[in-house]
Model the fold of this input.
Amino acid sequence: MSGPTKPRLMQGNEACAEGALAAGVRFFAGYPITPSTEIAEILAERLPLLGGKFIQMEDEIASMAAVIGASLAGVKAITATSGPGFSLKQENIGFAAMAEVPCVVVNVQRTGPSTGVPTAAGQGDVLQARWGTHGDHPVIALCPSCVRETFELTVTAVNLSEKYRVPVILLMDEVIAHMREKVELPSPGEIKVIDRKKPRTPPEKFVPYQPDADGVPPMANFGEGYRYHVTGLIHDKMGFPTNKGPEIAGLVTRLTGKIEQNAADIIRWEGLYLEDAEVVVVAYGCVARSAREAVKKLRREGLNVGLFRPVTLWPFPAAEIAKRASRARGLVVAELNLGQLKLEVERASQGKTGVHFVGRIDGELLTPREIIAQVKGVL
Amino acid sequence: MLADIEEFYRLDRLPHIWCPGCGNGIVLACLVKAIKELKYDQDKTVVVSGIGCSSRASAYLDFNTLHTTHGRALAFATGIKLAKPELNIFVITGDGDSSAIGGNHLIHAARRNIDLNVVIFNNNIYGMTGGQYSPLTPKVQKATTAPYGTIERPFDLAKLVEAAGATYVARSTAYHTRLTTELIINGAKNKGFSVTEVISQCPVSYGRRNRFNTPAAMLEWQREMAVPVIKARSMAPEELEGKIITGELYRGHAPEYVSEYTKLTQRLKEEAEGV
Ligand SMILES: Cc1ncc(C[n+]2csc(CCOP(=O)(O)OP(=O)(O)O)c2C)c(N)n1
Ligand code: SF4
Done:
């Protein structure tokens, strides 16, 4: 096994696989797809050595299903895919949200739509990560912008999924996935690992969907003496189907509410030179790297420009954006799509300032120069 | 009727949602009797189902129960079995659930020969959605989406899963309850992928449209059409036209998936210790 503290040259996909293992993931089910395949390949090698399970399923629908099955059996589970596969997984992601089964779905975004450009970067799945499956549902989506952060956020993704019993999307992109950086991974002792809450009552008193104060019910694993029912149908606290209006509304409200209620614990973001920024660039994932360069360069020119990097795209750090919007002359959203997160930034800034946009959809990464040009146009 | 097996039901969940005369309750009781005879620990037994009238059965049973998405029960079950091999897993699925939307998972679970016990409730129709034709609706029979009779050829599910690699394949009917129970028991004892197809009746979404005036007429039809496999072997194909061949249709020997996985991890462990 690798010595985690030794600096290593590592790819984003490799960091993701290492992060999953460090977080206690011992089950992977997936179907190969560029640019995510290395995650499966690495875990195919590592998991059997650790007593874990790896299976290549017949498609992404089956992969998502197997991951949920493994998690219900008590094993932390993850799958990795890209656009077309992410689309196929959606129905079962909704099942995980409804039945509150912890799991992590890595989506290494490529240029879409459809088969798109398999080997080119994109950020076109931002809204799909939020609303890909039907119905009102909770979701958490995290977006790393360097290799080390990919490791950390994979651990965080697994932890949040366990803590809140929700599917967590790790929204990577082709650049971060395939880029190599020298990273020093934390040693196992430094890594905080969270496990799902176990029932505190004996089986005969167990109410499977009775939430604690945090909105999250403790979870019994299959085979441990708590026989209960799991369904994608709207269910009552015992887990059985219901058609009663208040129970329907009650469940959906709690499912979405548990994320809102715990937003302060979940939401992550990073800022650079925000204190006096007249223009704030909002960027995430690979584009945040260009944005950082752009902002530093503009600062050297004496311009008051800052960077806001949402790390959780969902839930979106709307309050933080609102704060910046009320102070800044303008916000510039930079992303590899036609303005998906821009919609959310506009919503969050409530018309208090102008929201501008610079994007690319040709499979190439936005350059610092393109971002600078847009910022200067606003200043 | 349930007295000897009621300990395995969630009695507070009854009455069930099924129409009067539906075969689902009969087939389910056969499955429960089988589990009882197998003496499986309820805590260590999982019942996984898909979506459909038949798949609603899981909620009525007092095991670890999982009602999944349409067609995907086998993929969920694969995850459970691989994650926790000590669990006994039964999969309840309809003809549409298993052979249309779930057809890919069916053949791949068979190919892996993973130790799952599948009971297919084959009522020849999509019951839950009100009677559309399934891949197992016999040719010329009527459905809401085949008002003039279906022109499609049905699958022979038993042959399909045998060819795909299942190591236990059996068929029975809702009429032949003792046989059904026995076949499910034998399937569970097979360490590998076991499929028992049970021809069942849907009087409401299928029977009414296809000249079966009563549920009893459908059971009668099952009784008349059933030909034990031993007898069928000496019959000509023309004689077997439209018949239901019942009994243990196939038994094969092949490595079971989870055992193979365990062997692999064992080998890797020994290699690591050997170095
Ligand atoms: C993805 C998806 N497509 C369609 C449906 C609608 N649907 C529910 S049950 C069903 C057919 C069930 O037929 P079968 O599997 O034969 O079971 P039965 O109801 O006859 O027992 C369909 C098409 C669904 N729930 N999910
Ligand atoms: S529709 Fe058919 S299969 Fe469904 S419950 Fe009624 S009789 Fe049974």
About this structure: Residues 106 and 120 of chain B are 11 Å apart (CA to CA). The domain at 3-273 of chain B is CATH 3.40.50.970 (Rossmann fold). Residues B 18-19, 22, 24, 53, 123, 127-128, 202-205 surround iron/sulfur cluster (ligand 2) (CB under 6 Å).
